[in-house]
Structure formats: C-alpha cells, structure tokens
Amino acid sequence: MQKKLTLFLAVIKIVAADETKKECPELTSKENFEPDKYFTGSWHVTHIMINGQKLEAKDLCCMEFKSEKLPNNTIREILVHYYPNKADESKFVYIENHISEESLKEIKGRYIAQYRAVDKE
C-alpha cells in the first residue's frame, strides 16, 4: 500500500511540475502517410495548432477521435472535445466528420472533411 501511495504522489508531483506549453512545435507533414493506419480505432489529442495561433492554458482541449472506413470510400470520424476550463454546460462537444478518401491523396498533410455537431458519441 505504501509503494502505491508513494508512486501516486510521485506521478502527481511530476504532472504538477509540467508547465502547459503555450505554443505548438513546428512539425512537418508525415511522409508516406498511410490513412488506413491512422483512421482506425481511437486516437487522443491534447494540443492542437490552429493557423499558427498561440494557445493559452485556458484553451486546453482534450480530444478523442474514433474513426471507421465506410463502404462509400469515406471515413467517418467521431470527435469528442473536452474543455476542462469551461462552464459545465459546454465542457463536452461532439462532432461527426466525413472525410473523402480522395482528398487524402490530393493534398499532402491535410484533408477535407464535412462536419456537423451531434448530441452524443
């Protein structure tokens, strides 16, 4: 029991010491992107970059992406956004994306998606 408590406190100390980064690193697009590997299962995101804007701690958003390939050559993606710093009624946002597989081939590192807000996952 004491080992578990010590480990728990060590993890809490490390997490508390980690300062939230306010800028996303400059990243290059993935070479030889394989959509079948990316758009499968669940992915989790903690930081995003929007047109190079600086992020502040209040903008923190945790996201989960769940993807599936549909028979009509599109990828359906359900996104759950969690905003820990917002009021209770707006902490969770649910979005459904439909991504054209063709757009994945056309533009390196980007894709075109049609999206809409939905009530739940």
Q: Secondary-structure element sequence?
A: HHEEEEHE
Number of helical regions? 3
**Low-confidence parts:** 3-24
Strand content: 25-35%
Morphology call: globular
CATH superfamily: Calycin beta-barrel core domain
For the record, the CATH class is Mainly Beta
What is the helix content? 10-25%
Could you tell me how far the N terminus lies from the C terminus, measured between alpha carbons in angstroms? 37 Å
Number of domains: 1
Q: From the alpha-carbon coordinates, what is the Rg to the nearest angstrom?
A: 18 Å
Structural class: alpha+beta
Structure description:
The protein is α+β, with helices and mostly antiparallel strands. It has one domain: Lipocalin. The chain has 3 helices and 5 strands, in the order ααββββαβ. A 5-stranded antiparallel beta sheet has the order 1-2-3-4-5. Strand 2 and strand 3 form a beta hairpin. The chain is globular, with a radius of gyration of 18 Å. The N terminus is likely disordered.
